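Table S2 (continued). Query chain:
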Amino acid sequence: MQNKPYAVKLEDIFEGPMDLLVHLIKKNEVDIHDIPIALITDQYLEYINWMESMNIDFAGDFLFMAATLTQIKSKTLLPVHEGIGDDEDDEDPRHEITKPLIEYLQMKSAAEQLSGRNLLGKNIFIRMPGSPDEYPQTQENQFIHAGLFELIEAFQKVLEKMPGEHIVDLTADRVSVKDKISEIIDILEEKNSVTFMELFPRKPGKSDVVVTFLAVLELIKLHLIKIAQHVQTGIIRLFYL
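Corresponding output:
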């Protein structure tokens, strides 16, 4: 019986297609009202193709968003005829994604504020113990929450530093994802937190890197760890819960 490639489902981990779009906009430091749709669409499709190649099972919403961005990109390539259409929204196809994106950010901001409160009664909220500092903060070490896409970028940087073609065989793992999860837990039980790069040996193989990445995703899904990003250096750090 052949070993099936290890698959990871993004369901109930964290982000969705809108979060990927927000991540790309922030990464490129562009105005949400003036999105370079061709650039964002190409980068969005690169993420989708990469997740597919890694056997990451994502929701159909990602594909729907990819189709929407591609359609908007196609519209922006059409010649604009002056004097046709008085509605500004009709003149700029990007508004099709800008408006729902702004609404999404407003809803997400409100949800984050509510999630910081512990519901006690209908109109009563109490402060959650230990909530002021989700991650240990000092003047030198300031961390912000990191998500799936920051983790993907950290993983891609590891692969880019490796020589040769970036071809990985998920069916020939010398170390299973289950074993790697146990290994990471042992490390975190001893140190409580560790950087993403510290999880790899000095000269890791491609399969080792992939298995480590999949193990980290599973640990996040199981709510055993949280990941944060250093404000100044951008280094990803894992915290044991």
